[in-house]
């Protein structure tokens, strides 16, 4: 499952949109991933923040059993969540 999640994240990140804000910082988001965004002083810092946000978002979505967006035919579905 770990490799599937890594591939899913890497594929989703290909669709990240970056823009430089008026204050000189960078902002990024991924269309279809509501609430997932990153911010940073540099593009690299922004991308790292976006990756962290995406990972946290995925964990929450998977725990809640929510549907995840399909990205380049990659689809992750949870049929059962084990209690820890």
List the topology elements.
Elements: H1 2-13, E1 16-20, E2 26-30, E3 37-40, H2 43-64
Antiparallel strand pairs: 1-2, 2-3
Q: Can you walk me through this structure?
A:
A three-stranded antiparallel β-sheet has the order 1-2-3. It is an alpha+beta fold. The longest helix has 22 residues. The chain has two helices and three strands. The mean pLDDT is 92. It is elongated, with a radius of gyration of 14 Å. The chain starts with a helix and ends in a 20-residue tail after the last helix. Helices cover 40% and strands 17% of the residues.
In short:
With 84 residues, the chain is an alpha+beta fold. 40% of the residues lie in helices and 17% in strands. A hairpin with a 5-residue loop joins strand 1 and strand 2 (26-30).
Question: Uncertain regions: pLDDT < 50 for 5+ in a row?
Answer: none
Beta-strand percentage range: 15-25%
Q: What structural class results from the helix and strand content?
A: alpha+beta
Strand order of the largest sheet: 1-2-3
The biggest beta sheet reads: 3 strands, antiparallel
Tally of helical segments: 2
User: Helix fraction?
Assistant: 40-55%
How far do the termini sit from each other? 17 Å
Please trace the helix and strand order, writing H or E for each element: HEEEH
Please state the CA-atom Rg, rounded to the nearest Å: 14 Å
Shape: elongated
Summed over residues and divided by their number, the pLDDT gives a mean of 92
By DSSP, the count of extended strands is: 3
